[in-house]
Design goal:
about 80% helix, mainly alpha, 2 domains, MFS_dom
Length: about 450
């Protein structure tokens, strides 16, 4: 029988946003919620924990930073493991380990045990984002890929808001341990939902040459009319060295892009975490506003994130992604600098804080979507994880930078003018980052009709 060859991208791109794709995005969204929830609740329960255990600021800071260190390591390692063992098992294992370790934190009775469980929780959390981003990107049709990736990563903000509401109601009555019990149970419930419903990507199954039955099972969910008796599903791209993911992203045509993506993420996370840590203090002390006004400005910054993420994802699906991101970071730089020059006008400060949140948080999410498109299947998760892992050093540096600027007694205009430069730098490096051409596997037979017509004829 004459076997017609069909590219995987054509099968993926013609699928509607139906029940299957909605389930995949929903489960990815739920996994990302855990990250936002964890960061939100740990900062909010810290004062009660410090009082009950009589901890110094330094000790408490080290305990809280243990998770960030774990996330950095988890982000770097999680993607590589995902490229070796699959996206599905790494996501499920990461969510499971995070849940168990968070429950361990809830029963902690010593600082040392708390530090260990927070570090281990961070390992699981760090691996979730690159693996989930890769899974969504490989199932999403090209026409909505960036939008679905950014939509999924908006779960971070939802988790942060949900965690804040939960803490407000439960912490005064039941204490900090109750929050962590809920934070540990939620991932375990999610694991039981993921086990039957979270699929492995066809990209990974084809690259690793998994069994035909596994491939057919997922293909039938995407297109029930696909006939494996008449069509042969093929990858679009081939790789000369599919087994060396880490080496591949730092060599050949991907080396420059990998370095530039890491630099862009470094600059963007530096600004985001500096705003998260220091914006209320900077506005209160530098602008002379009340604590309530400072907190409101911070809330406006956070509110801009989800909207910016969705808009940037929509634009990236329609225009050149690196150009969209480069322009976005120019806008973010101008908004950040403008905050310092408008310190005497509170309404303008809040408006610029909203724009800064939309462009910085949205740009960070957009970088993950761009990285998912930049790398081929066999190195995609590794590339995303390296970008996110190395970028987190910008988050770590931001805490020191904020303290240093305040120690030097810079005024508000000087501080925010200095913060113009990371945004400009992020724009320049992402402008110079373009996906290299990929080798395409030529099928041994060339059907007269195109692949999309071939599939529909079944």
């Amino acid at each position: 029988m004459d076997m017609r060859h069909v590219k995987l991208s054509e099968l993926i791109d013609r699928q509607p946003f139906g029940r299957f794709l909605c389930t995949v995005v929903g489960l990815g969204f739920a996994a990302i919620i855990l990250d936002g929830f964890d960061i939100s609740v740990m900062g909010l329960i810290a004062p009660q924990l410090r009082t009950q255990w009589n901890l110094s600021h330094d000790t408490l800071g080290f305990a809280l930073s243990a998770a960030l260190i774990g996330q950095t390591i988890g982000a770097v390692c999680g993607g590589t493991l995902s490229d070796i063992f699959g996206r599905r098992p790494v996501i499920i294992a990461s969510v499971l380990s995070f849940g168990i370790c968070t429950l361990g934190t809830a029963i902690a009775t010593s600082v040392s045990f708390l530090i260990v469980t927070r570090f281990l929780s961070g390992l699981g959390l760090g691996a979730i984002i690159p693996s989930t981003t890769t899974l969504i990107a490989e199932f999403a049709p090209k026409r909505m890929k960036a939008l679905l990736v950014t939509l999924t990563l908006c779960g971070f903000t939802v988790g942060g808001v949900g965690g804040g509401v939960l803490v407000a109601y439960l912490l005064p009555v039941y204490g900090w341990r109750s929050i962590l019990v809920i934070g540990g149970v939620m991932p375990l419930v999610l694991v039981f939902v993921m086990l039957p419903f979270l699929p492995e990507t066809l990209n990974f199954l084809l690259v690793k040459k998994r069994s035909r039955s596994d491939i057919e099972k997922i293909t039938n969910k995407i297109d029930p009319d696909f006939d494996f008796g008449r069509f042969d599903l093929r990858m679009d791209e081939t790789s000369e060295n599919p087994k060396s993911s880490l080496k591949s992203i730092f060599s050949g045509p991907y080396m420059k892009g990998t370095i530039f993506l890491c630099l862009a993420d470094f600059f963007v996370l530096f600004l985001i975490y500096l705003f998260n840590s220091w914006l209320p203090t900077l506005i209160k002390e530098g602008g002379g506003y009340s604590l309530k006004q400072s907190a409101l400005a911070m809330s406006v910054f956070q509110l801009g994130g989800p909207l910016g993420s969705l808009v940037i994802g929509w634009l990236m699906d329609r225009y050149r992604p690196n150009a969209v991101l480069a322009l976005n970071f120019i806008v973010s730089a101008l908004a950040v600098a403008g905050i310092g020059q408008s310190a005497s006008h509170y309404g303008v400060v809040c408006g610029l804080a909203f724009v800064a949140g939309a462009t910085l948080v949205g740009g960070s999410v957009g970088l993950a979507a761009f990285a998912a498109e930049f790398y081929p299947t066999e190195t995609r998760a590794t590339g995303i994880s390296i970008m996110l892992g190395l970028g987190r050093f910008g988050a770590i540096l931001s805490a020191l930078a904020g303290a240093a600027m305040l120690t030097l007694r810079w005024d508000l205009s000087q501080i925010f003018l200095a913060l113009l430069f990371p945004g400009i730098a992020a724009s320049l490096v992402i402008w110079g980052t373009r996906p290299p051409p990929r080798p395409v596997e030529e099928p041994p037979q060339s059907p007269n009709a195109n692949a999309a017509q071939t599939i529909s004829s079944s």
